[in-house]
Amino acid sequence: HSSAGTLNGAVPGEPVKKDENSRRGNWGNQIEFVLTSVGYAVGLGNVWRFPYLCYRNGGGAFMLPYFIMLVFCGIPLFFLELSFGQFASLGCLGVWKISPMFKGVGYGMMVVSTYIGIYYNVVICIAFYYFFMSMTNLLPWTYCNNPWNTPDCSGVVGKDGMLNTSLANATSLATEVVNRTKRTSPSEEYWKYYVLNISDDIGNFGEVHLPILGCLAISWIVVFLCLFRGVKSSGKVVYFTATFPYVVLTILFIRGITLDGAINGIKYYLTPQWEKVLDAKVWGDAASQIFYSLGCAWGGLITMASYNKFHNNCFRDSIIISITNCATSVYAGFVIFSILGFMAHHLNVPVSEVADHGPGLAFVAYPEALTLLPISPLWSLLFFFMLILLGLGTQFCLLETLVTAIVDEIGTDWIIRHKTIITLGVAIAGFLLGIPLTTQAGIYWLLLMDNYAASFSLVIISCIMCVCVMYVYGHRKYFKDVEMMLGFPPPLFFKICWRFISPIIIAFILVSHSDSQSQAHSLYNDYIYPGWSLAIGFAMALSSVICIPIYAIYKVARSPGATFRERLKNACRSDANWGPALKEHRTGRYAPMTSEDAAEGCPHQPHHPGKQRLDQHTQQPQPQRI
């Protein structure tokens, strides 16, 4: 396979339209990579997590810690992962040739991506379900006269389609406070008793909800069809999936700000409470939101960057993608809060009573607000279509991460040719593992996975990655690698962030979240999770982190060396094959031959002697470094 590579390198004059890496494939062009990464980073969290965090943590004042964390932790880690994957052209397992002892980090990333991939598609399938149910002339969660409604239900829309004025008057009276706290909206009852048919306990699975299961099959089929040729097919799909949500956001934004009371909602979202800036929890929330939102430590960034051409400017890309992601979050906040403000104005209650986050925002509060609009099914269709696209953009990368890691790891010609089979296998496994989440207890499990599967484990993975690349492999070597790839070394600010600031911020997130973790996640509405289920959640979180020490111990035990210290040194030392994937990029320290060989004209020789020489060559310069 190296002949194609040398051919490409042999004609520097004319632009080569072929893939640089003929064996693995590359993105069709740079736009595909940027759009895919934007689609990956911009997910459901931007819509349902950020606006809520913002209003809860001091409105506009939250923007300050948010952007500081973006600059000092988000962008540097994003750039680190992109440059790491692009340099080696390998997925999240293969890149650990840089220091084989740390390959457990790659397995940890795969475990995290597996968990997220399972439950993320269930959320997408519920959005699909709502999307299909919006194809009516009257949204089914408008009124309280359905078989699934309870006597407590009271709608916002009166029978004649006008606002239920008696309710609005009643809520304004202080005496009626008791009744209001009992009010459940038709959209909430639709969600709980019809869509989820929720059971009373996490252990009580009940039966599988078939329409949701059907939608789950649809969403996995869509993901598979978009990925069946790897980045070749998904690169074309993202032209639509990554851009169209912005069209929908803009339509909903214009619709939202023209409504009565929208300004109150936006004020609520943006009014700064500066005293909150001194609260450590707010900084912790800002840091973790940046962290989860950008998708650091999921393995997806390394995977997507590994399909770039070697000399692509991933520094520029990382800044574009990170800033786009954060701007989207802020923009989505306007869309959400303008309509929530309108609803609060209608009900004559403060905005805080209608604000919500997570699935409650996407499937209860926002759909209810939409019933108040003329031609509500249209807005509902648009909103759920946007959620589907936002989710799919992330889901593509999660699946591609797992498939690429498996294919790169096995690495035979057969498996590279039959990558589609692996993709199908992973998709089927993901569908089967998602089935328990479509049962009546599914939502409890979904929220448990959301809170635990990818919480503090990501932070630990990222911290260890930073330490490994900067301190075990060596920051000077890594800066040289980046320079060899981009043509300029990383800017000084990034060098300082990578070595000191980002790891310190990451450690801070860990500390600030470890105390809140125990209390916060035991509630879903009024339901308290039993101890055994929290233990399962904790085991999920631990399962990705535990890969790291287990693999390290295994690797040290298998390494050559008389003493433990020698074994440790050998386990950390870069693999002989570490470096750029293609021969023509292996220059400088990575050059496969000494200068005498070059004079003899080495290209005529077969590949293997060169490989042996490469081994000897990389072993020799070790002593000077130590």
From TrEMBL:
Pfam families on file: SNF
Reactions listed under catalytic activity: glycine(out) + chloride(out) + 2 Na(+)(out) = glycine(in) + chloride(in) + 2 Na(+)(in)
Chain segments carrying region Disordered: 1-23, 593-626
PROSITE patterns hit by this protein: NA_NEUROTRAN_SYMP_1, NA_NEUROTRAN_SYMP_2, NA_NEUROTRAN_SYMP_3
GO biological process: amino acid import across plasma membrane; neurotransmitter transport
Xref: InterPro entries: Na/ntran_symport (IPR000175), Na/ntran_symport_glycine_GLY1 (IPR003028), SNS_sf (IPR037272)
Keywords in alphabetical order: Amino-acid transport, Cell membrane, Disulfide bond, Membrane, Metal-binding, Neurotransmitter transport, Sodium, Symport, Transmembrane, Transmembrane helix, Transport
Transmembrane segments: 33-51, 63-84, 105-132, 208-228, 237-257, 290-307, 319-344, 378-399, 420-446, 452-472, 492-511, 531-554
Disulfide bonds: 144-153
Molecular function, one GO term: amino acid:sodium symporter activity
Binding-site residues for Na(+), renumbered to this chain: 39, 41-42, 46, 293, 325, 390
Gene Ontology CC: one annotated term: plasma membrane
Highest taxon listed in the record's lineage: Eukaryota
UniProt-annotated location(s): Cell membrane
Record's compositionally biased regions (Polar residues): 617-626
Bilayer disposition of the protein: Multi-pass membrane protein
Signal peptide: none
Keyword Metal-binding attributed: yes
Cross-referenced PANTHER family: SODIUM- AND CHLORIDE-DEPENDENT GLYCINE TRANSPORTER 1, SODIUM/CHLORIDE DEPENDENT TRANSPORTER
Family membership noted in the UniProt record: Belongs to the sodium:neurotransmitter symporter (SNF) (TC 2.A.22) family. SLC6A9 subfamily.
Name of the protein in its database record: Transporter
Species name: Tetraodon nigroviridis (Spotted green pufferfish)
